[in-house]
């Protein structure tokens, strides 16, 4: 840790929070610190006042301040270290910290396959277009690795679950290269939602569907390689529409077969 970073701890001053009655103090403190980080334009690595300074400034109990900082740490917004040079510093929020919360939200909202694919159709083609100029050789390699894993899945060299996750990862690769942070995060939310639905997908999966997805992914990757932006958008859009249609038909057929089976008493 640099001397500048250590000295900075004494330079950052947080404004006084206005305590509300509807939230616990620790949550209110955490929200106040988050807003101050944004207001002051602090970034990853910037030091915040330590626990002792926060206790003195806000007149709160040690347990309240510790809980408030723990909330921020759990959200990925700050990191807390101990020792002589330890303290509280701003962190780069990991995507997983956000998508985990979204996954829980979608679960309790009972999002359907139709909901998911409507969102994919609205977001992923735009993400692919924006990612077009950003994807480098490593991104192409990641797409190819995903396709190779899927091909291994077709011949039984990896588990069906690993195969399906490799299919989904193809879209995560494209999303990660999107320069628009809002669309990138939205696309990664959708990837996480699909990952959480893997078991449902496996229940209706067919080898023909898996083969078509591999072929679609190859064509999309080739369009990136041939530098055809319009083709990338068109192929991603077609892939989502075809996959939705096929999936809903498979789900319908699977439901009909299940309903026709005799019930065991």
UniProtKB/TrEMBL annotation:
Top-rank taxon, per record: Bacteria
GO molecular function: DNA binding; DNA-binding transcription factor activity
Pfam short name (any one): GntR
Keywords: DNA-binding, Transcription, Transcription regulation
DNA-binding recorded as keyword: yes
Keyword DNA-binding found: yes
InterPro entries reported in the protein's UniProt record: GntR_C (IPR011711), TF_FadR/GntR_C (IPR008920), Tscrpt_reg_HTH_GntR (IPR000524), WH-like_DNA-bd_sf (IPR036388), WH_DNA-bd_sf (IPR036390)
Residue intervals of the HTH gntR-type domain: 23-93
Protein name, as recorded: HTH gntR-type domain-containing protein
Organism expressing this protein natively: Phyllobacterium zundukense
